[in-house]
Design brief:
Number of helices: 12
Strand content: 5-15%
Structural class: alpha/beta
Distance between the termini: 18 Å
Helix content: 40-55%
């Protein structure tokens, strides 16, 4: 495991170097103190993905170390996990000015590097924190409607090219065997644009596509920052978070 972890850490460092060498989002980079990559266990079963670094993250170079990060730490404690047990990252790796929302173009530029991160880690569960990361994995969904509801999707980690901001095939696979433990999880069908993109890959054989795509559970959660100012959402976020150990348990039973 130590060898595997060391190799994963080297690959993640290379992704960081690639971002710097290719000068991704130069305007954001110019206004930020530093690039903020993911942090935690590079061999983790679960990855948490937010939107972009804030002021504290920009100063320390570690994601989720401000008030929202403290709340995330608190939630991890409730399910007997620590930061070293999971991997935490953002789509956008530089702090946007005045903590504004990252733009669509900024998310698109960083999306291939997020996919490379996930390709290294190969998590069983991806917990999206807020709508900015959720919309890339569950296109067309509203977080108010699907928060806390695990969805099984299939991702081509090796495809880092954006297609309308997406490299996710969220279409239901009729050939996929669904165990009894996962019958309660919906397999969402993506919007028509994603369907057309996925079905247009006719030049690739069905068997090849099955090898390229990996089944992953997406757990959409509210962003901890929102829950800091809304007591009702705070309790909802904690309640939704309790799904994590149950999902991991069921996934381990499948393997």
């Amino acid at each position: 495991m130590t060898k595997q972890r060391n190799e994963a850490e080297k690959k993640l460092e290379q992704i960081k170097a690639d971002i710097l060498n290719k000068n991704v989002c130069p305007d954001l980079a110019q206004g930020a103190n530093q690039l903020v990559m993911g942090h935690g266990n590079p061999c983790a079963d679960i990855v948490f993905i937010g939107e972009a670094p804030g002021k504290n993250e920009d100063m320390q170079g570690i994601p989720f170390v401000g008030s929202a990060g403290k709340l995330l730490d608190e939630m991890l404690t409730t399910i007997n996990l620590q930061r070293n047990d999971v991997y935490i990252t953002n789509i956008v790796k530089y702090r946007p000015p005045s903590n504004r929302d990252p733009s669509t173009d900024e998310k698109k530029e960083f999306w291939p590097y997020l996919m490379k991160e996930l390709d290294v880690i190969r998590p069983k569960v991806i917990a999206t924190l807020g709508r900015h990361s959720m919309e890339y994995f569950l296109p067309g969904q509203k977080i108010g409607a699907v928060h806390g509801q695990p969805k099984r999707i299939r991702i081509n980690f090796g495809n880092t090219q954006t297609a309308g901001g997406l490299t996710v095939d969220a279409m239901q696979d009729a050939d996929e065997q669904r165990t009894e433990s996962y019958q309660k999880y919906d397999e969402e069908v993506a919007d028509s644009a994603t369907q057309k993109r996925a079905t247009s890959e006719g030049s690739v054989s069905s068997s090849a596509r099955k090898q390229d795509f990996t089944s992953v559970i997406i757990l959409p959660l509210y962003h901890p920052a929102v829950a800091l100012y809304n007591r009702g959402l705070r309790q909802t976020l904690f309640d939704d978070f309790m799904a994590v150990p149950e999902i991991i348990k069921k996934l381990n039973l499948e393997n």
